[in-house]
Structure formats: C-alpha cells, structure tokens
Design a protein that fits this description.
Length: 806
C-alpha cells in the first residue's frame, strides 16, 4: 500500500480537530437538538388546539367546529390527522383519515402522536388526538442517522476535500526552483531547447526561458502547475493527432525514457510541433523522484516534410494520370487519325508477329486488300470533305463486319488492308464478300460507293507478309480490270494476273524492289527505330513524320512493294545519328564545319548499317542517295556521279527537307508550310525533282487539310514520347539519380522545343538549372509536378479530340 503524502496527513489532522470541536460543542449543548425542539413544538401546538376547542365549543355548532378543526390542521403541514374523542370513545370531530393513522391505545402513546385531555366544568369531557408525520431524518442504506451525526459526517467530508484543494494551492506557492543554484538556472536558460523539470506527480518544478517563450507564459507562473494546461497532444509524422499518452506520463508510469515523441501545441498559424524527450530522475534507492523533459521545436522541419509529402502526393497523382494518358496515346498512336483503323507501321508489326506464329504452328492466315472504286471522282466532284466522310464510313463498315481478331489498316489514300489470322482462303473470300456488301449498302447523299477486293492466303505460297499483300493487291487490280465492285481471290485469278504481268513486264528495278520488300523483316526495322528513339526522340519522331509524307507522295506513283521499301528507308534515313556524340547531337546552335563533317561521317555509317542489316540494295540506295541533289552537283556525297537517285530517294529528299524546315529547331526560326512549299519550289530543278515537288505539295495539302500556316500542331505520337520521358523523370526522382535527372531534363527541353511546346521546354530548362544549383528536394518536386501538369494538359487535349472506335 502506498504511503500517505504529507499533504494528506495534514488534511486528516485538520479534519479530526474540527470534528472533535463539533462533538464537544454538541455535548455541552452549544449545538441545538432539532429533534427535541420538534417534539416541544408539536406538544405546544396540540395544547393550543385543545384550549381553542374548549373555548369555541360553547359558541359554535358541530359544522363550524369541524371547519375550524380542519383549518387548524391544514395550517401545520406535519399534521396527518386530528380528532376530538369523547370520554365514551366516540369520535366527535375528525380531520384527515384519523381512524387509519391513529395507533395509540389504552394509554400507550407513540412518538408521533399527542393526546391532550379536554375538560368541561371541571370534569373530563374527552381528549384531542393529533397524529404527526414522521420527522425528516438522514438515512443511509435504510438506517436513520441522527442530525448531529449527519452534520459531523458532512463537515468531515467537506473539509477533507476543501483542505486538500486549499493546501495544494498554498503549497504550490512555495517555489521549489529557489533551491536550484543560479548558475544552473542560467545554464538551462541558455539552451535553445525548451526544458521542464517535473516532480513525481508531473507538476512543474522548473521551466527554462525557451519553454516560457514558446508557450507565452512567464516561467514563475508555471511552478506547481501541470503541463496539461498547455494542451499538448501527441501527433504522428503526418501531423495527425493520435490516442497515445503524453511522454512524461509514460515515463512516470513505466520509469523509462521517451525519445523524439512529436507533440503539437496551438492551432492554425500558431501551431508548433516539438520533438519531446523525457528522462526519469531517480533517488539513490532507485525510487523515481521526477523527470526532465526537453522540447525541440521542429515546426519548420515538419512544414518542410509536409510540403514534401504534398509535393510527392501531387507528383504521384500527376504521374499516374500521365502514365494513364500515355497508355491511351500509345493506342491512339497506332491508329489512323481520320478513320480509326490501324496505321501502317502498327499493321506491319502485327502482320509479322502473326506471320511467324502461323509459320511456327502451321496455322492458316489470309490477307485482303480493299480499294474504294472511283474515289478520285468523289473528291473531284463532291469535295474532300465528302471524301473523308466516305473513308470514315467505309472503315467503320469494315471493322463492324469483320471479327475482332481481324486487323484493319488504312494502307493508302483510299486503300485498306486486312489481316485475318487463323483464316483460310475460303473463309477470307466469304468475309471479303460480306465487306463488299456492307460497303455497297452505305448511303450517302447523291453518291453511291462500292469497293473492289483482292484476297490471298499463306497457302498460296506467299514467301513473306509483303508477298501475301502483293498477291492480294494483284487480285485487287484484277477485280478493277473486271469491272470493279467484286472480290477476286489469288488461286482463281492467277491466269488473268499472269496475262496482266505479260502486258506490263516489270522492270529490273521493280523486280529488285519486290525482292527487297520480301527480304526486309519489319521486326528488325522496329528494333533500329526503337534504338534511335532511345538515343534521340526528336530524330525518331522526325523520321516517322518523313515516312508518312513519303508514302502519301508515292501513292499512285509507286507500287505497293516500292512504297513499303520507301517507307522503311525514310524510317532509317537518320539511323547513323545513334553514334553521334551528345555534344553535337544536342548542340543548341549551328554546327561548325568540323562538326558537320563528323555528322556526314556518321551518316555514311548509317548507310553501312542499313546495308549490313538487310542486304537490300534498293533500300540501301534510297538511304544513301537521298542526300544527292537532283542536278547531281553534290554527287560525291552519294554513290558517285554515275548513279542518279531513284524516284524513292528523290521523294525522301523532298520530305526530309520539308519536315526539317517546318520543325522547330533551336538555331533558327520555324518556317510556315507555305514558306516551306515556296522554298521547295525555289530549289526545284537543282536540289529537288520539279515534278515530285509539285506532287509532294499536293499530297501534303490533301493529307494535312491545308493546316494554318506557321502553326505547329503537336501530334499524339509526340505527346506520347514526351509523356514517356516524364515517366523516366519520375523514376529518376524516386531513385534520386541527379545525373540521370540532368540528362532527362536536357533531352526533354530539346524535344519539347522541337515540337513547339515552349512552355514545357521552359519548365524543363528551369528544372535543369535547379538541379545544377543543388536546390532543396521540395523545389525540385514542385517543378517536376508543374512539368507533369503541363504534359497532362497537353495529352488530355489530344485525347479529348473525337475518339476513334476501338
């Protein structure tokens, strides 16, 4: 059992002294006996009532006496009943239910009953009987307690609590800090941390000036009080309140130190956060006598951590949104913008995958070429707007009619190709006929649309995906020769196709192109372009744009296989830049003559890469000769003066020059499309083929719908590439790889500038500078978040455009 404190012993002594005085006063009669006084008052009332009855009885009748008796009874609330009983025992008058309440019989009188004799003429006439209510008395568990005892108990309990409170308040005024030497107090006041010395009851014994300043109260006024007055609350690392006990309470109970417990004090702007450590102070016999608590103000650190958490949360939210939009753009980047069909590059990739799978597993596969009949007349007679609408509805009809496992590609202007995995040539013919009927059933105002279709399959001895498409294309040509609006399959049209081949014998160049197209695996092309994109995204995107424009300009001029080879050449024409040093590849200004010479060297290495990777002379010729002018004035840059560039090489030269002129470069201003067209025409006959220049301009205008001059529109593919770079940025931030961050922000700045996204480029440059200056992590996170937000808004604007049918 714990020993009583000195305060409690003093209180018990004072209470005992007061109780003794009260009992003594009661014994000598100084404290009135309320019970005796009640009995005397009741006897006097009874006698007065009897005298009054004797005086009034001769003058009043019975009714008046009853009323008088009732009035006298009601005037005293303690009277339960009264009665005037004659000597014979008969009740003459009665007030209340006297018969049920009266208990005295034959001279035996109870404590709550009075009997007063009534005489008449000196003789006993009867008696007045008064029944009283039980007097109020204290009861405990059903036992009555005398008033003086109850008073003693009440005074004892009240004084105990009163003296306890009073003494505690008085004893607090005895300042225990006076026993602390001045030199010790001065040392404690010099500490920047707040300091409290508490006794074993967690009452403040000493507070230094730092703690007093932090709480806004003088140190002297805290002595003897409890720290609870400051409303400290335990919080977690996020600043949220917890149900944990205060550290000095834990230390007192467990007699163990507490370190680094976070406590919050105040609200709103006045809120402060402290890291509190407590150490118990024990006596020689290991009994705890108090403890010391230190308060380190970590408000600024907590604010920084909170800002960092907020920045990280915002960064992750924006990063997740960008990653989600990247997935959406990845899908959109594989689609033709106008029709929603698969684009050529994605189609080639899927075609080669399924070709290899079909070869390995001996599965059937078919291909179909679809061409809208008299489409040029639709554009000429009804306008390009109607032509675009026809393309959209025809593509929708194809995708709706075919199975979900089939792949529909917009192969050319009005030409579509269809890949049908696990499909025999008979099944493909049936599907093609269903597509023809679906197209024929389309309704347009003042216009009827039909299509011709060619069908072939792997079982027809096709040696490659391009060979299969070539067979289907020849069947398509036969369908047009037979009157259009019909389906022709390879195994039933070989005689007719052979006759057509004899009518127009292929040139040696066409035969070499056909062989090259069959020999070029698209997976190898995709691997090289991916490597180029990893090395320099801007160059890879430029190559894809050039490839699209080359195909657009070559449609109707070159055959199916020739267009395929030209497209591959355009994708690989800058492949040599993989080896160019960063100092040249990412140089913001113009290149010096020495640097230009080094670039030419790497371009020649790119030609050798194409030559060694594919062994296709036609492909190598286009990549090598596209830098040679039409007038052969710089033939030394190519294969020499005896070899003129092919049609494909001349188209590539024009497309490459045009995209370079309209793209944003840091060392010169961007040309508008009309200015670039004028420059192409100015150089026609010298640098470029005049006829191909005009053809190219017409194709670009048709394909881009005469976009507003000077305005660079960010494409889905470009936004996707920037988004992927930002994903790399987030990964580098999480790894805290400053070197990689500097490299990514530099690349991002160049890529954004190339695409005309000046705000993204500016933020990337600012982030790069911040990283170089070694600023704090929060500022880096905030700038990265702004970059992500800009990218997210840019991507959202592209995704929000009319959605393609999946």
């Amino acid at each position: 059992m714990s020993r009583l404190t000195s305060t409690h012993r003093i209180v018990l002594g004072l209470v005992s002294l007061v109780v003794s005085v009260l009992l003594t006063a009661g014994m000598i009669g100084l404290i009135p006996n309320s019970e005796l006084q009640d009995r005397q008052a009741r006897a006097a009332f009874s006698e007065m009532t009897a005298v009054s009855f004797m005086a009034l009885a001769p003058r009043m009748d019975t009714a008046e006496l009853c009323e008088t008796l009732e009035a006298m009874g009601k005037r005293n609330p303690d009277v339960l009943s009264m009665a005037v009983r004659k000597a014979s025992g008969e009740v003459a008058l009665e007030f209340g239910s006297h018969a049920t309440t009266w208990q005295s019989v034959d001279g035996n009188t109870f404590a709550n009953e009075n009997i007063v004799p009534i005489t008449s003429g000196g003789d006993s006439w009867g008696q007045l009987e008064v029944r009283w209510a039980t007097s109020n008395a204290f009861t405990v568990f059903g036992y009555k307690i005398r008033p003086d005892i109850a008073l003693t108990i009440f005074v004892s309990v009240s004084l105990f609590f009163g003296f306890s409170y009073f003494l505690k308040r008085v004893l607090r005024q005895v300042n225990p800090s006076k026993v602390v030497p001045n030199r010790v107090r001065d040392a404690l006041n010099a500490l920047s941390e707040g300091l409290l010395v508490l006794d074993c009851n967690n009452l403040i014994v000493l507070a230094n000036e730092s703690f007093a300043t932090a709480t806004g109260r003088p140190a002297d006024t805290m002595i003897g009080s409890t720290p609870k007055q400051f409303a400290f609350r335990v919080v977690d690392s996020n600043g949220e309140a917890t149900a944990k006990k205060l550290p000095w309470e834990v230390s007192t109970r467990n007699e163990t130190p507490q370190k680094g417990v976070l406590l919050a004090h105040g609200e709103g702007d006045d809120r402060r956060t402290y890291a509190v450590s407590t150490v118990p102070v024990k006596s020689e016999n290991n009994v705890i006598r108090g403890l010391v608590a230190s308060f380190e103000d970590v408000t600024l650190l907590q604010q920084k951590q909170e800002e960092l958490r907020f920045a990280l949360t915002s960064l992750r939210t924006s990063s997740d949104e960008v990653r989600k939009q990247n997935h959406e753009l990845e899908w959109l980047a594989t689609r033709d913008t106008l029709t929603g069909c698969m684009n050529r590059r994605c189609f080639f990739h899927e075609f080669e995958n399924h070709w290899q799978e079909s070869e390995s597993n001996q599965l059937p596969m078919a291909g179909v070429m679809v061409d809208i009949d008299f489409f040029k007349a639709v554009n000429d007679n009804h306008g390009h707007g109607m032509g675009d609408e026809v393309l959209r509805q025809v593509s929708a009809a194809l995708m709706k009619t075919l199975e979900q496992t089939d792949f529909v590609c917009r192969y050319g202007g009005e030409e579509f190709s269809v890949l049908m995995p696990n499909t025999s040539i008979d099944e493909a013919e049936l599907k093609a006929e269903q597509c023809r009927l679906a197209i024929k059933a389309l309704r347009f105002e003042k216009l009827t649309v039909t299509a011709s279709l060619g069908v072939s399959a792997m079982c027809q001895n096709a040696e490659s995906p391009q060979d299969l498409l070539d067979q289907a294309d020849k069947c398509l040509y036969a369908a047009k020769r037979n009157g259009r609006n019909q389906v022709v399959r390879w195994d039933r049209a070989q005689d007719q196709i052979a006759k057509m081949r004899n009518e127009v014998a292929p040139t040696r160049e066409q035969e070499m192109t056909n062989k090259a197209a069959s020999a070029i695996p698209y997976h190898a092309v995709a691997a090289l372009t991916s490597a180029l994109a990893h090395r320099d995204q801007a160059t890879a995107i430029h190559s894809r744009r050039v490839a699209d424009m080359c195909v657009a300009a070559a449609e109707g001029l070159l055959g199916l296989r020739e267009c395929y080879v030209l497209e591959i050449a355009a994708l690989l024409h800058d492949i040599g830049k993989i080896g160019i040093p960063d100092s040249i590849l990412r140089k913001p200004g113009r290149l010096s003559p020495e640097e230009l010479e080094l670039v030419l060297t790497y371009n020649h290495l790119g030609v050798e890469m194409v030559r060694g990777s594919f062994g296709a002379p036609v492909l190598t010729e286009i990549v090598e000769q596209h830098v040679v002018f039409y007038d052969m004035s710089n033939s030394e840059r190519g294969a020499g003066p005896n070899q003129r560039p092919s049609v494909g090489a001349r188209i590539l030269a024009i497309a490459n020059a045009y995209d370079t002129m309209v793209s944003k470069l840091s060392h010169r201003s961007t040309m508008s499309r009309s200015e670039a067209f004028a420059e192409l025409r100015r150089c026609a006959g010298t640098q470029f083929d005049p006829e191909l220049v005009e053809r190219f301009i017409v194709a670009v205008r048709l394909r881009l719908n005469q976009a507003e001059a000077g305005k660079i529109k960010i494409t889905r593919e470009s936004a996707l590439n920037i988004g992927l770079m930002l994903e790399q940025l987030i990964a580098a931030l999480e790894d805290q790889d400053v070197t990689q961050l500097l490299d990514i922000t530099d690349s991002l700045q160049i890529t954004a500038t190339t695409h005309g996204l000046l705000e993204i480029a500016q933020n990337a440059r600012l982030l790069h500078q911040t990283l170089e200056e070694g600023c704090d992590e929060i500022e880096v996170m905030q700038l990265a978040g702004e970059l992500l937000d800009l990218c997210r808004v840019t991507q959202a604007s592209l995704i929000a455009e009319p959605q393609l049918v999946r």
